[in-house]
Inverse folding.
């Protein structure tokens, strides 16, 4: 198996094979994250039955595709099934035959239905038929593992994970496939013979996040800047239109989702639900609640409580690097080359924000570098009650051992050097934080520097220094 990382996910699949009960497994996550690859590679592409939904096909086409898969695995029929009830009846006949393939670990019958949401076309009986197949037969088969997968998160969430009828409590395990960590990206680059420094790998993460498909598109003959240019800025570059394609594949009506993200991209400190609802392009109500939940489940945004705000109006913050990059440079493209953006004011502002996002996606590594990976913590951003006239802190780690780490994140071309002006800003933010929160904990200033930090007299206010290499800890 050529599977990088995914230790927990592989463990869940192994548990399914060793289980003494029927398993209904839902694998979900954003487009291009490697859901299909993980399942195919883990099972060495050997299934009792495998079928995939077809893009933009109506019910008749979906049934023809499903029938082709049935025939490939040994079912004999002269015509395609007339509806989904007949299709699943034929699948049951196939699975009950003596010749059906069984997984050697525990003699299990493994079914993999890929891109499941595409099978559920308008006015079809797909959901009812799948429901009947599971509830009337499959749920009583102790040697059966049904794995379903799809990028259309809104469909997966609505119909499988939070359904009140049909599949309510039927799903036995769920696997959310997250982007790679920096350590996993490094392993992927090594496998693909991509030569980069760790600083360059952090920069690549600031653009592409940890999405394996994007990183697999790198040309090893080109530099990082050249790869960004070829993939994102050339008219026919593979990722030139990825931003729109991504959200139209995930959500049935993504316009509101995209409006939320484009609004949050302008506010690096995050916005409250009330503030988001006040935007004309977004609006409020149950639609906003659903859209925020779906974006959070897909890892595009994070939700956190305001440390000092009374009430429960949570804040939301954009934490997906590629989304931020696409909004900043591709959607409103001013230049046709990435090199023309480098060192511009917009580039420098983006780079600071994007490195903060990299850090937020590597909290576990930061905690390990601080020696507190076994301590329960709560992470959030903070902003002063005074708004623009006050102060903000982009990452606060509140620990159960009576310490709060206030993190300052810096990504510079060379080693970062804390100067007098910046040290005064940190003292000011610290004072504001203490006064407004009334915090009684010990507060430690933590510098996270992508390319290291130069020693000087101003570092006396800093208790911890974390460097880029620390973020690569597995």
């Amino acid at each position: 198996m050529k599977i990088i990382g995914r230790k927990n996910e592989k463990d869940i699949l192994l548990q399914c094979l060793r289980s003494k009960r029927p398993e209904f497994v839902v694998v979900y996550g954003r487009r291009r994250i490697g859901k299909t690859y993980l399942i195919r590679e883990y099972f060495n592409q050997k299934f009792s039955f495998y079928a995939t939904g077809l893009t933009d096909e109506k019910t008749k086409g979906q049934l023809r595709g499903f029938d082709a898969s049935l025939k490939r695995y040994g079912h004999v029929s002269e015509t395609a099934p007339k509806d989904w009830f007949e299709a699943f009846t034929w699948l049951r006949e196939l699975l009950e035959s003596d010749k059906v393939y069984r997984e050697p670990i525990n003699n299990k019958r493994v079914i993999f239905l890929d891109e499941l949401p595409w099978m559920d076309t308008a006015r079809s009986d797909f959901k009812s038929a799948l429901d009947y197949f599971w509830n009337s037969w499959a749920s009583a088969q102790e040697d059966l593992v049904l794995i379903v997968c799809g990028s259309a998160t809104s469909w997966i969430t609505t119909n499988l994970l939070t359904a009140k009828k049909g599949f309510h409590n039927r799903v036995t395990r769920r696997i959310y496939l997250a982007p790679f960590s920096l350590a996993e990206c490094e392993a992927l680059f090594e496998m693909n013979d991509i030569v980069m420094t760790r600083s360059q790998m952090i920069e690549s993460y600031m653009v592409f996040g940890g999405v394996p498909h994007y990183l697999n598109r790198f040309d090893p003959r080109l530099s990082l800047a050249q790869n960004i240019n070829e993939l994102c800025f050339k008219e026919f570059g593979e990722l030139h239109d990825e931003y729109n394609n991504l959200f139209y594949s995930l959500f049935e009506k993504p316009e509101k989702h995209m409006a939320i993200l484009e609004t949050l991209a302008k506010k690096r400190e995050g916005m409250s639900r009330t503030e988001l609802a006040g935007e004309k392009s977004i609006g409020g109500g149950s639609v906003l609640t659903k859209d925020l939940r779906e974006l959070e489940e897909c890892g595009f945004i994070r939700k956190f409580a305001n440390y000092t705000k009374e009430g429960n109006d949570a804040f939301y913050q954009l934490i997906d690097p590629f989304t931020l990059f696409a909004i900043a440079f591709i959607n409103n493209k001013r230049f046709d080359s990435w090199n023309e953006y480098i060192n511009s004011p917009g580039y420098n502002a983006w780079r600071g924000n994007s490195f903060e996002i990299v850090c937020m996606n590597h909290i576990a590594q930061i905690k390990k570098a601080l020696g507190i990976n076994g301590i329960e913590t709560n992470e959030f951003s903070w902003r002063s009650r005074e708004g623009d006239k006050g102060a903000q802190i982009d990452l606060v780690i509140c620990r159960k051992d009576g310490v709060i780490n206030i993190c300052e994140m810096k990504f510079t071309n060379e080693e970062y050097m804390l100067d007098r002006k910046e040290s005064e800003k940190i003292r000011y933010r610290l004072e504001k934080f203490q006064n407004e929160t009334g915090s009684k904990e010990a507060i430690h200033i933590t510098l996270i520097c992508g390319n290291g930090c130069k020693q000087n007299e101003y570092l006396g206010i800093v208790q911890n220094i974390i460097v880029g290499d620390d973020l690569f800890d597995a």
User: Anything to note?
Assistant: The chain has 20 helices and 13 strands. The chain has a mean pLDDT of 92.
